[in-house]
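Hi,

I'm pasting everything inline rather than attaching a file, because the server keeps stripping attachments. The sequence lines come first, and each chain or strand is labelled.
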Amino acid sequence: MAEMNINDAVLTTRLDAVVNWGRKNSLWPLPFGTACCAIEFMSMQASKYDMSRFGAEAMRFSPRQSDMLMILGTVTNKLAPVLRTIYAQMAEPKWVISLGVCASSGGMYRTYATLQGVDRVIPVDVYVPGCPPRPESMLYGVMKLQEKIEKESLSMRKDHIARFYESLARQDALQAEKGLTSQQTIREMLMDAADRGAGTIF
Amino acid sequence: MIIEHIDAQLPGTVTDRHAFRGDQTIVVAKESLLALVELLHREGFQLLVDITAVDWPERAEAQGLARFDVVYHWLNLASQERLRVKVPVADGETVPSLTGRFKTADWFEREIFDLFGIGFEGHPNLKRLLTWDDFPGHALRKDFPLDGGDPFCMEGCTAPYNNGERA
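And the predicted assembly:
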């Protein structure tokens, strides 16, 4: 330790900058592993690629304790309401990385069973292409997210998440009104969005 | 062989038969299915490997025959003999359920009900198995669009099998 006096001990900065610095270097990932991408993700967490170097050490399997949702693999229409619930339950502020082509766009599965991109039901921050993406690509995705967090303002992220909650309330209301299953409710909402020319339901 | 035995025990049951590389196939009417199943079970065909179905829309239109085949695969564990049984079913008809004799038929039949819309008489819990309860249509019928009328098959989508229609 060098000698310190009051002039050396004080540093002025913006609140945004210091808060985002803390956020970006302590992301707690929640792996939503549905397919082969999750295997690549395990590799990325293991010793060779070691995601812990980026401060994303604390793997949690409960949405209540995580703030970075990593979607690893194919998400079916049947699973879409579950994914929305999990995202809604995560601690704020929260970010989403969509890993691999299936999660990002439905990939090669252009069928009735597969959700054609998770960004239709939840907001996504970073997309990682590849089938499956190599661990390096996944790490690059995390780094890109860190860059994004660095540039954010605090209120921006708040509004971003609030829009999603609003769509969740609409979903519940529609479900109660029409007496549908949650999957069919989301399907109807997607249809309506498509009619309006929108690509998402939030 | 089991087919000769069936002919002797239940004459007239087998309406059609063929074999390919040792795979025996017989076609029976749904009315005689349960009696046949009891016989097969007695004769040692006690493993119901699989139940599935095939959709032949052109067969129904052109020849006026039943649209679906429900296909059963049995294995005789003692003699290692296999038997395939096909039961033609018209659209909207039901087939007698095998859940009374084979517990495994429960989920197989629910799956067929879900994906083909063929009902099974006497099934204890006939509801959809893979898709959700109010899923529109039956996904494995040939007239079901591949993308399920996916609302995001928007204009400009160049997938060769996008018919631009909604389910």
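Chain A has a mean pLDDT of 88.

If the labels don't parse on your end, tell me and I'll reformat.
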